[in-house]
Every structure is written in C-alpha cells, then in structure tokens.
Amino acid sequence: METRAVLRGVRLSSQKGRLVADQIRGLAVEKALNILAFSPKKGAGIIRKVLESAIANAEHNDSADVDELKVKSISVEQATVLRRFSARAKGRGNRIVKPTCHVFLTVGN
After folding, report:
1. Average pLDDT over residues 12-31
2. CA-to-CA distance for 47 and 15, rounded, in angstroms?
3. Average pLDDT, stretch 76-82?
4. DSSP 8-state class, residue 67
C-alpha cells in the first residue's frame, strides 16, 4: 500500500531540492525525519513538511502503521520560473531568475 503527498510550486530550485531528496530515498520514515530535522539546508524543512503530510495521509486514509512506513520514492521536478529584472546603467536590465519546483513523495511498506 502506497500513499502520496504532493507539493507544487515551492520556491526552491529543483537542483537544491534533489540534494536533500537523495539523502532520504529508501529510508524508514522515522530515520528520514531525523535526518531532515538536523539538516541545515532550506529544502530539508520543505521536504520534511511533505513527508509529515504523507505520513498523516497514510495514517488517516489507509490506516497504515507508521512504524513500518518507508520512503518508497521521492522526486523533485522543475516547475515554472519566475522571471524578474533589475535595472542597470544606460537603460539596460539584468534578468533575475527565481526557480520553483514540485515535490512528489510516496511512502509505503
């Protein structure tokens, strides 16, 4: 039995999110939460909330045992990019790119 949690359009680059996702892929839920709680990266806090949501979904919707859950799969995919500009000298402008990503997490036995 597998349960999913999805977070779309979070203000985090997909490359930085994948660094955190690779650390918890395939681990037991309790160990993954412990790793995310003490990780200094911005993506760790975001992915921790998604993991807690997936655990709550599994417990409430599928009445799964929380102690036996593992992170089956986690993927961080690129979403739309917010493009802004910064004014420069002589009428020019520099592009500011603010990337976003989608986080898909699946937990199961």
Report:
1. 96
2. 13
3. 97
4. G
- If you count them, how many residues does the chain have? 109
d(CA 22, CA 75): 9
CB 105 within 8 A of CB 1: no
Contact 43, 16 (CB under 8 A): yes
Rounded to a whole number of angstroms, the CA Rg of the chain reads 17
Mean pLDDT in residue range 87-96: 97
Whole-model pTM?
0.90
Distance CA 31, CA 5 (A): 18
**Both tokens of residue 35?**
């790793």
What DSSP element (H or E) covers 61? helix 42-61
pLDDT value of position 40: 96
Residues whose CB falls within 8 Å of the CB of residue 39, separated by 6 or more in sequence, listed in order? 20, 23
